[in-house]
Amino acid sequence: MRLKELIEDREILVMPGVFDGLSARLVQSLGYRAAFATGAGLAESRLGVPDIGLMGMTESLEGAAMIARRTSLPVLADADTGYGNAVNAYVTVQRFEQAGLAGVMLEDQVWPKRCGHMKGKSVISADEMADKVRAAVLARSDDGFIIKARTDAAATHGIDEAIRRANLYARAGADLVFADALLSEDDIASFARGVDAPVAVNMGLGLRSRATTPLIPAKTLERMGVAVVIYPRLLTTAAMRGMQLAMTSFAKALESDAVITDPGLQTSFEEYHEILGMAEFAELESRFAPDRRP
Question: What pTM did the predictor assign?
Answer without folding.
Answer: 0.92
